[in-house]
Amino acid sequence: MSRFKACVAVDWSGAKGKRHKGIAIAEARGDDAPRLVRPGHAWSRQEVLDWLIERANKEPTLFGFDFSFAPPFAERGAYLPGEQGIPDNARDFWAYVDALSRDEDLGAASFLEEAHRRHFYFGIADGAKGDFIHFRQCEMALNAAGGGKLSTVYDAIGAAQVAKASFSGMRLLHHLNGKVAVWPMDPLPVEGSAVVEIYTRIYLRNAGMSGKKLRTRADLNRALLGLGGRPVRLRFEPNDHQTDALVTAAGMRAHLEHPLAFSPAGLTKELAQTEGWTFGIV
After folding, report:
1. What is the pLDDT of residue 239?
2. 102 and 236 assigned to the same domain
3. DSSP 180-207
4. Count of structural domains, the chain
5. Is residue 53 part of a domain?
6. In a domain, 78, yes or no
7. Which of 24, 154, 174, 216 gives a 20 to 30 Å CA spacing to 101?
């Protein structure tokens, strides 16, 4: 499995508070079935950060997070058009988000709700939702291939929104800066660990189960078999956060064999520094 000893997928959460039932972590190692990391534990985001740094230093691991590593930039030439003093590259933007977010446990709700409220859709009072729908170039590539990426970091309403998770994730990336490589903002290191952006639907599609939420061991194992892996042996019915993490860890492992895994056709140097790219889109 390339030079990485394991693939770790983190199903992330942008919820308010210190402990999050929505966070799940899974690991795929060698040819073994993926396994959950501390499945009964309610993780904090800070705890995930500390665990990742410690784990990254022990062995070369590819870590995946299911949030957008940056807002769209190429489409409009800015992350927050019309605002002054906003950075024009992802790494400086992470620092900017971190500085303006006063939430506990790497949360970022205040960034959306207060610091830059007008850029985010919270409901009908904000006008037409379509005015807030903007995608990154990798998401456009996925949609063009039938991948169905429907969410955007500017949509902050509803259960499917990814805004709060993504901006809290940007705070995590800021605190990883210089400690673990973040691809593609950083080039893939010759050795050591790296962090990539993931999107579970890509791996479900690769497994032949596109658009399906996995809520049972049977469905989970069908997806794992579709990715060329082994079934898991759980003593309980997993929740959808756990199945997402397990399938994604297996999907990351399988995608490492793709010759364009780290050199997708649409990724330019400018996009790497501004918008990033989702691991799995080639």
Report:
1. 92
2. no
3. SEETTTSPPPSSS-EEEE--HHHHHHHT
4. 2
5. yes
6. no
7. 24
Domain interval for residue 111: 90-171
Q: What is the pLDDT of residue 211?
A: 64
The answer to whether 9 and 249 have CB atoms below 8 angstroms apart is yes
Same domain, yes or no, for 65 and 195?
A: yes
Nearest to 14 by CA among 38, 48, 55: 48
* Token duo for residue 206: 């690769």
Q: What CATH number is attached to the domain comprising 228?
A: 3.30.420
By CB atoms closer than 10 A (0-12, 13-18, 19+), residue 144 is exposed
pLDDT of residue 149: 65
What are the tokens at 18?
Answer: 């210190």
Q: Any idea which residue has 């079935």 for tokens? A: 33
Backbone angles phi, psi at 60, to 5 degrees: -65, 115
Find the distance separating the first CA and the last CA of the chain, reported in whole Å. Answer: 19
CA 132, CA 122: separation in Å to the nearest integer? 10
Token digits for 149? Answer: 């990426």
What's the average model confidence in pLDDT over 13-35? 93
Is there a single domain that holds both residue 126 and residue 62?
A: no
> How is the chain split among helix, strand and coil, in percent rounded to 5?
35, 10, 55
Paired strand residues for 61: 6
10 forms beta bridges with 25, 65
Residue 1 is encoded by which pair of tokens? 């499995």
Q: Which three-class secondary structure state does DSSP give residue 32?
A: coil
